[in-house]
Design brief:
The complex is a heterodimer of chains A (257) and B (436). Chain A is of the alpha/beta class. Chain A contains eleven helices and nine strands. The two termini of chain A are 34 Å apart. Chain B contains 20 helices and three strands. In chain B, a hairpin with a 5-residue loop joins strand 2 and strand 3 (359-362). The chains are: A alpha/beta (257), B mainly alpha (436). The A-B interface holds A 49, 52-54, 69-70, 73-74, 76, 78, 80, 84-86, 89-92, 95-96, 99-100, 102-103, 105, 107-108, 110-111, 127, 130, 135, 140-142, 151, 155, 168-172, 175-176 and B 38, 40, 167-171, 173-174, 176-178, 180-181, 183-187, 228, 231-234, 237, 387, 390, 393-396, 404-407, 409-410.
């Protein structure tokens, strides 16, 4: 595939007149894993959500495989933050994973045995084969995260956009996610994760995008993660950004959700 | 007495019509309400009900002014639907254009729309002729006034609700569970939302005659809330909610037929509340009693594990026959709890206890069970020792199922550690793998 999985050109996003993302320009390289890293409120999740059209962008262009999202939806899988849904919902792990197949099943048609089998396979891929029938509130946080991954997996997409998949998960889940990312890459897929842990970035990901309302640096992890770049992202906000940003960094300012 | 049997045996045509209409409405409300509840829009249902009043009164006034039948249910219902939808629109508008939270937006719209309706209603009541009586039945509900044609309307509307919920079951499920995923997957979230709220409007309109605009929300929310205590499966829950809705309506109608003078709408809601109370208590999945029992069981299991481990530790110190005192010395615990657990373990065939009940020893099954427990606990200890950088919150502890918690690689690694430690006789071998 010659076109890039994801290309973002001067994306601007504002919440209530305050800019949270300025002129983000970036491209994601195919067959690699990319981390979007930055401090709290840097607009990491916003970047993902805006490129998926979940929140409106003020301006900018987002192309998936050279096309607007509408045309290539089935090639793109989104893994939302675990906290974004109510895990008390009366469905089983298998039901949630089957949701990744709903588009394939189509309007009004029921989920059939064949689809449930596919869902079970995806669950097995994240090490939850024994938990398929379990109501989702009976799963641990890490297992819930893996259910979300399995749902994206069932979609058989080429590009996976994951919002903080490693946030407060147990060691087994962390390992399962890493294995999964490696497998997706081997199969020619591309993975983008919002990530919060600087310690593990270089170890887990090929490419890194440092973000603090603007793209501070992007490229291979080893080149991007320099003390200078990290200082620009996490430390010296004042030298880098203008007054509007100072407003945002105050307590009480809107934060990314 | 005779009237009692007339009601129960459905000898009156009128009773049959009313009963059928009310039950159908209850079922449709339970079904649509299931999704309303899961979409966390219960209060919107309430606002919707109240917001129908100005539409009803306005439709009535228009009919009076232009001189056609002001009592036609369909005409009044259309007015109700329009103003209900306008009320929902107002909620959305307030939410979009201000920083107000949902609860405030809902409260504002509910009270303003209802206030406007009440104002118009009192204007109507001052009109000569006192025709307002026809409206009261829509506020408080009076299914007894239901005619055959009304019942047909209820039937068609309920079938429509059931049909849409059935055909769009998975779409509505996805919408309620994870809207943003639905959107990225390409589902028209807005359209689905409008459809779902359309069903709720329809149910509200149908409910005007049965329970009235003030109480219609009860049948949208209470049956699914009751059903939730019985099932963790949305399919079952939806059917159960429909059943509770139908049953509550039936009980309400029958009781009010037997005890004339009591308002049917209120009786329907009260019987729904009765079902809710019963479910809250007895519900098979989340009822208070089952939760209490499960908690007690878990506590019992913990005591059992501790007792087995303590006996195992004593046995490890070289005594195959262990005395009660030695076990008690192992941990700070309640003596009678330990004594009763040991009796239980003996009954279960894990321990052989001497007649005085003061000393005991493992038999084969008890030994392998204790070995398994101790092994898992010590594996965990090693794991925690070797991954001290791992925050405790990230450790997902269920000592009984270590293979499920840690992945195979980690378990293997731990087993390696275990081999060394086993030489030091700290961790017993896996009873399943290492049986001689």
């Amino acid at each position: 595939m010659s076109t890039l999985p994801l290309e973002i050109r001067s994306l601007n996003v504002a919440y209530h007149r305050k800019m949270v993302l300025w002129d983000a320009d970036l491209s994601i390289r195919p067959g690699r894993s990319t981390a979007i890293v930055g401090p709290n409120g840097a607009g990491k999740s916003t970047l993902l959500k805006a490129s998926l059209g979940l929140i409106p962008a003020a301006s900018g262009e987002v192309l998936f495989y050279g096309e607007p999202l509408k045309k290539v939806r089935s090639r793109v899988a989104y893994v939302p933050q675990r906290e974004s849904v109510d895990w008390d919902f009366p469905v089983s792990a298998r039901d949630v994973v089957a949701m990744g197949l709903y588009k394939k099943i189509g309007w009004c048609l029921p989920v059939r045995a064949r689809h449930r089998r596919m869902a079970d396979e995806a669950l097995a891929d994240v090490g939850l084969a024994d938990f398929a029938g379990r109501q989702i509130s009976q799963l641990s946080g890490g297992q819930q995260q893996r259910v979300f991954l399995a749902r994206a997996l069932a979609q058989k997409a080429d590009l996976h956009l994951m919002d903080e998949p490693f946030a407060s998960v147990d060691a087994a889940t962390e390992q399962a996610i890493l294995t999964l990312i490696e497998r997706l890459k081997l199969e020619g897929g591309t993975v983008v994760c919002v990530h919060h842990d600087l310690d593990t970035v270089a170890e887990y990901f090929d490419d890194v995008i440092l973000l603090n309302m603007r793209v501070v640096a992007k490229g291979p992890a080893s080149e991007v993660l320099t003390p200078e770049n990290l200082r620009k992202t996490y430390g010296a906000r004042l030298t880098l950004l203008d007054e509007a940003v100072v407003d945002l960094s105050r307590p009480g300012a809107p934060r990314e959700s | 007495m005779e009237s009692f049997w007339r009601v129960l045996l459905l000898q009156d045509h009128n009773t049959r019509v009313v009963l059928a209409g009310a039950c159908l409405f209850g079922a449709a409300a339970g079904l649509a309400g299931t999704f309303l509840l899961l979409r966390k829009r219960s209060l919107l249902g309430d606002t919707l009900g109240h917001a129908t009043l100005p539409g009803i009164t306005l439709a009535f006034l228009l009919a009076e002014t232009f001189g056609f039948s002001s009592r036609s249910f369909l005409w009044l219902a259309s007015g109700a639907a329009l103003s209900g939808v306008a009320g929902m629109g107002a909620v959305l508008l307030i939410r979009k254009t201000s920083h107000l939270k949902d609860d405030a937006a809902l409260a504002i719209v509910l009270s303003v729309f209802f206030g406007a309706g009440i104002a118009m209603l009192s204007a109507i009541q001052q009109l000569p002729g006192g025709q307002a009586a026809g409206l009261e039945r829509l506020i408080y509900g009076n299914p007894a006034s239901m005619t055959s044609s009304d019942a047909w309307f209820v039937l068609v509307a309920s079938l429509l609700v059931a049909g849409v919920c059935g055909f769009l079951f998975k779409e509505f499920t996805l919408l309620c569970f994870d809207e943003s995923y639905a959107q990225t997957a390409g589902w028209p979230v807005r359209l689905l939302d409008v459809l779902l709220m359309g069903l709720v409007v329809l149910v509200t309109i149908v409910g005007l005659q049965t329970v009235g605009i003030l109480l219609v929300v009860a049948l949208l929310v209470i049956p699914p809330a009751a059903a939730r205590f019985w099932s963790d499966d949305l399919r079952v829950m939806a059917l159960f909610a429909a059943g509770v809705g139908a049953l509550s309506s039936m009980v309400g109608v029958v009781v009010s037929a037997l005890l004339p003078g009591l308002p049917t709408g209120a009786l329907i809601v009260l019987s729904a509340a009765l079902f809710f109370g019963v479910s809250l208590l007895l519900g098979q999945k989340r009822g208070i009693i089952i939760r209490h029992l499960l908690e007690r069981k878990a506590a019992r299991r913990l005591v059992r594990e501790h007792v087995l481990r303590a006996i195992f530790e004593c046995a490890e110190e070289g005594r195959s026959v262990v005395s009660l005192e030695q076990v008690l010395a192992k941990r700070p615990w309640k003596k009678n709890e330990v004594v009763s657990e040991i009796a239980q373990l003996t009954d279960d065939g894990l321990l052989t206890t001497d007649p005085s009940a003061l000393s005991f020893q493992f038999n084969g099954r008890g030994d392998s069970e204790a070995r398994r427990l101790v092994r898992n606990h010590r594996l965990w200890e090693i794991y925690l020792l070797n991954h001290a950088d791992v925050a405790p919150a990230r450790v997902d502890r269920d000592a009984d199922l270590i293979e499920h918690v840690l992945d195979q690689r980690l378990v293997d690694e731990l087993e390696d550690l275990l081999d060394e430690k086993a030489r030091e006789r700290l961790v017993p071998g896996n009873p399943e793998k290492n049986l001689p």
